[in-house]
């Protein structure tokens, strides 16, 4: 594996998709980052290794290095130090990373604790105008489309953490970005990388709130309830009504992801909800949809197990039940629909927090 010189004393190594770096600070070599493979022989004389995350695909290389260099200093965040000992199954010479300049022996390396990129133990490092960014700004292969795609696939779920990291880093004046995956960014590409992340993480204020109603109906009874609910919610929400038997899984899942409030109506088949309902529910983003209000409803003929299972699952996923499920035995009459209307008015339309 050949080394690519970044600046005097700073080299990049590539192992498959992974990149790690060595920094020579006054004769003391430090490894920054890791790989799923192995470090080069040149890395074995390093005095320290900085783990930007303990993710196994970025830290597996440490296990082999420790067999040869058990005395090497391992720098990581508090969470990273905890994790790495369990990943390599041995003790290490722990060096705790905090915000600010590293201890004197690392000579000019400055750390920022930037959790959620994508693991909660992640950090970034600056040295001599070079930003060692970990998975942040990763994925550039000469195409900005690939760069954007890497963010969307790996980091977009943690948008708030990415925004916090950008806020910490934008005053650092990096002229080179060395990520854990993809090409090193230099020159105008550095500014473009920051600009693209600002755009990708910009919060767009919605002019109206969206309620999404997903339903599965065998005999039309749950559909009657869904249509009744839609009529009520249109008084305060842009309301999307989706029959999961008629629409694609991708459409139903994307609609659920856009919701401010989610209603799920289901019948019960073989003591369960139909797979189309499960597909939409289990596709939800458990980070950004945490605490989203929801309500489950449906018609049943025996015990309504499907309704109860969906309600319990959404609760276990961290979402917030607006009310207990609204259940109807077979065909809803006007009293049943009135109960559903009152539930929606009292717990959703009248809720000032929504």
Task: Chart the SSEs and their pairings.
Elements: E1 3-7, E2 10-15, E3 18-25, E4 28-32, E5 48-50, H1 56-59, H2 61-68, E6 73-76, H3 78-88, E7 93-96, E8 100-101, E9 110-113, E10 123-127, E11 130-134, H4 144-154, H5 159-169, E12 176-179, E13 185-186, H6 188-200, E14 210-216, H7 221-233, E15 238-243, H8 249-257, E16 261-266, H9 275-282, E17 293-300, H10 305-316, E18 320-321, E19 326-329, H11 334-349
Parallel strand pairs: 4-5, 5-6, 6-7, 11-12, 14-15, 14-16, 16-17, 17-18, 17-19
Antiparallel strand pairs: 1-2, 2-3, 3-4, 8-9, 9-10, 10-11, 12-13
Helix pairs in contact: 4-6, 7-11, 8-9
What does this structure look like?
It is a single chain. With 354 residues, the protein is α/β, with parallel strands linked by helices. It folds into 2 domains: 3-200, Ribonuclease Z/Hydroxyacylglutathione hydrolase-like (Metallo-beta-lactamase, Chain A), CATH 3.60.15; 210-349, Flavodoxin domain (Rossmann fold, 3-Layer(aba) Sandwich), CATH 3.40.50.360. The protein contains 11 helices and 19 strands. The chain has helices at residues 56-59, 61-68, 78-88, 144-154, 159-169, 188-200, 221-233, 249-257, 275-282, 305-316, 334-349; strands at 3-7, 10-15, 18-25, 28-32, 48-50, 73-76, 93-96, 100-101, 110-113, 123-127, 130-134, 176-179, 185-186, 210-216, 238-243, 261-266, 293-300, 320-321, 326-329. The strands form 3 sheets. The protein has a 7-stranded mixed beta sheet with strand order 1-2-3-4-5-6-7. It has a 6-stranded mixed beta sheet with strand order 8-9-10-11-12-13, with helices on one face. Strands 14, 15, 16, 17, 18 and 19 form a 6-stranded parallel beta sheet that branches.
